[in-house]
Specification:
3-stranded antiparallel beta sheet, protein biosynthesis, Tetrahydropterin Synthase, Chain A, 8 helices, alpha+beta, mitochondrion
Length: about 200
């Protein structure tokens, strides 16, 4: 409120000039806080209309802000924008327009409101329209996407929950190195019969 009042005073009551003043101030605050460590945050998942699912990680500085409604809403906006965008880079995501404002502009505005460094760290997508994709986020900070051939989204979610709980060191059979396969101390047994697992992240 005080920032708005100051902006109107500086602009002699011109709302457009005041808005530009606030925008520049937000940019300056975002640049100033960019060097601060942002190691907390949340993971969000969103499903696109093209059969793809997208998972994003958004970081902040403290666990307190990580639970803030404004921050959580921004995480949802980022995930939704990523899902609607389809394939693309992080730069494309940050330039994605949501309700007349880019994700980057929303980030800068959020930094100005909350006072912490906010960063969209990474994005991952799965699915090509011919497979089934599902995901699970545990406590906001462990996220898993599972893509299978056959089965259902519910099965994907069940597998994702197990992955989140067990934290397996390998995503697919091809990822397992020979020294692990040849280790006699690792018990052998029949694996449950699941549809072919395409990808886990």
């Amino acid at each position: 409120m005080m920032d708005c009042k100051k902006a109107l005073i500086e602009s002699d009551g011109d709302q457009d000039v005041a808005a530009e003043f606030l925008h520049k101030k937000g940019l300056a605050q975002a640049d100033k806080k960019a060097a601060r460590i942002a190691a907390e945050g949340k993971i969000a998942i969103s499903n696109g209309a093209d059969g793809k699912a997208v998972m994003v990680e958004v970081n902040c500085e403290t666990d307190f802000v990580g639970k803030d409604a404004l921050f959580l809403n921004y995480c949802g906006r980022v995930a939704g924008a990523a899902a609607s965008m389809g394939a693309g880079s992080m730069e494309d995501l940050m330039n994605q327009d949501v309700d007349g404002e880019t994700i980057e502009q929303s980030r800068q505005a959020l930094i100005s409101k909350i006072g912490e460094n906010i960063q969209v760290r990474r994005m991952e997508s799965r699915g090509d329209g011919t497979t089934v994709v599902g995901g699970y986020v545990h406590m906001g900070n462990i996220g898993v996407l599972v893509e299978i051939e056959g089965g259902s989204a519910e099965l994907c979610t069940d597998i994702a929950m197990h992955v989140a709980a067990m934290n397996p060191p390998f995503a697919t059979a091809d990822d397992v190195p020979a020294e692990v396969l040849d280790n006699p101390q690792i018990p052998r047994g029949k694996m449950p019969c699941f549809p072919k697992l395409r990808q886990i992240w």
